[in-house]
Amino acid sequence: MTQVKICGLKYRQDIEIAVANGANMIGFVFAASKRQVTPDQARILAQDMPASVKKVGVFVNESPAEINRIAAMVPLDIAQCHGQETPAELAKIEIPTIKAFSVKNGQIIGDITAYPDSLILLDAPAAQFEGGSGEVFDWEALAKSDLPSERLIIAGGLNAGNVPEAIKQFQPFAVDVSSGVETNNTKDPKKIIQFIQKVKES
User: Fold this and answer.
1) Which molecular function terms from Gene Ontology are attached (predicted)?
2) Are 174 and 195 in contact (CB under 8 A)?
3) How high is the mean pLDDT of the chain?
4) Closest of 119, 67, 111 to residue 89, by C-alpha
5) In the chain, pLDDT over 90 holds for what percent of residues?
6) What is the pLDDT of residue 131?
7) How many Cα atoms sit within 13 Å of 116 on the Cβ side?
8) Catalytic residues
9) Contact (Cβ atoms closer than 8 angstroms) between residue 122 and residue 108
10) What is the dihedral of CA 130, 132, 134, 137, to 10 degrees?
11) Chain segment 130-171, per-residue pLDDT in tens
């Protein structure tokens, strides 16, 4: 079954709703973003989360040493890297990694084969901030045969309405949502529940 990552969480009640309804991963954004949290805030939010739910930290071009420091402090289970991080840099991170790539005009920007030990996240090109624009990339234009579906995460403009089609097309390891479960830039409990239900049904 496809796993669910709810990203950009800043409030305990949203985390509790996501966890209670079957989210597999919770994302804390440490890079510049309207959803940014500090390591201290994430540490408090992460308290009492069940071990079965993975805590993911989202970083953009952060040093491996700083990622390791924050990962130990929160603590994080996975580091998600959205910048130009090299395979050598990711190798210095002491927890499992997700490497994010933008998809533009049916092409992945960058070489996913250079990161065989990371989960691979595909997203639409960034808008104001690195780390996603809330837009859908062109699913049809992307050649699926070369994608490592067993470690593939699909992101970018997902919501309860289109996530079943994303799962059907990519058969990914996980799907990742942030703005698609928001109303007026705030996480919406009903949308979180709906999204998770749609994934579980797909």
Assistant:
1) phosphoribosylanthranilate isomerase activity
2) no
3) 94
4) 67
5) 86
6) 47
7) 1
8) 7, 123
9) yes
10) 130
11) 445 567 998 999 988 889 999 999 999 999 999 999 999 999
pTM for the whole thing? 0.95
CA distances from 193 to 14, 19, 23, 32, 57 (A): 10, 10, 9, 27, 22
Q: 190 CB contacts (<8 Å, ≥6 apart)?
A: none
Strands 186-187 and 182-183: what pairing?
antiparallel
Helix 64-73 / helix 39-46 crossing angle, nearest 10 deg: 40
Whether 102 contacts 126, CB under 8 Å: yes
Residue type, 140: E
State both tokens at 164: 């079943």
For the domain 3-201, what is the CATH superfamily, name and number?
A: Aldolase class I (3.20.20.70)
- Cα(202)–Cα(198) distance, rounded to whole angstroms? 6
Tokens describing residue 142: 């992307």
Tokens of 39: 């390591």
Q: What is the CA radius of gyration of the chain?
A: 15
Q: Which helix (H) or strand (E) holds 65?
A: helix 64-73
pLDDT tens sequence across 61-91:
999 999 999 999 999 999 999 999 999 999 9
